[in-house]
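Marked as duplicate of an earlier ticket. Keeping the data here for the record.
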Amino acid sequence: MTILITGGAGFIGANFVLEWVKATGEPVVNLDALTYAGNRASLQSLEGSNLHHFVHGEIGDAALVGELLATHKVRAVINFAAESHVDRSIKGPTRFFETNVMGTLGLLEAVRAYWGGLGGAVKDAFRFLHVSTDEVYGTLAPDEPAFSETTPYRPNSPYAASKASSDHIVRSYHETYGLPVLLTNCSNNYGPLQFPEKLIPLVIHNALAGKDLPIYGDGLQVRDWLYVGDHCTAIRQVLETAAPGASYNIGGDNQMTNLAVVRHICALLDARRPKADGSRYADQMKHVTDRPGHDRRYAIDARKIAHDLGWQPSVRFEDGIRQTVDWYLANAGWVENVTSGAYRDWVARQYT
């Protein structure tokens, strides 16, 4: 038996592939378009392994997906593939809707055709798991209850709107065609192998390079931080035990402001990589113009997955962020390889 992972060279996808192979020993077919955030170096430890088959391609290529499904006799598909950076979606939304909406539609069509040709227990056991985000729910006031699985969708950015659209398409394929889908909506992930455009790796990278640490607006936007390893175990639990058609919110139970996160990283770097001149990394913090339509607060109510499936996050933020900082300090070569000239130009334009 084999599973198909889409977007498995990206941040969460690569972490999941590595964790899956280590935990299960089950083969993985990994389909990734290798956009700027996809990095095969993240999967270097699997080079030459007969448990990992990498394919360069788009999820919207129904013919390619159909061939992979049939050739490898895939028993489950987990869709991580997505354009995922809000800032980039504001600058250029078209690519986000092409990948996240039309790409997901093409993937579903290929999966539906393959699943329709299965029979008996194999067909009954097949699953399609779609990985989404809490950003589809919009924003919360300071005193509002956390997002639950029944919270209405209110996306506020092109990225969130494209993911909300894909969620609705996935759900419709279950209701209309009976496709055995599963849907997860996670909070902000952090950890090793994350492309340094997102807050935590960006701050680590800029701090070590002696550059400004850009903070949008007042920095008091609240996010629920989820260690990527915890997210991977939650997805595996959903895939293995959830009923078709189910949806689950996955959160880290770590609500923190962006400002607090940046200060925490600076303190860790002060202790682990003190600057020669004795100054503190927090001196590099710089408030910049806020993002248009910036959601003020996200928070996940993960009681459903705890009740139904027995999953809870195991990594406290203090432990996860320490592990993350240590990983980036120990893997400067990986960071250097992904922070190309195009990346530097993007950061300069975005935060100036």
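See parent ticket for discussion. DSSP finds 13 helices and twelve strands in the chain.
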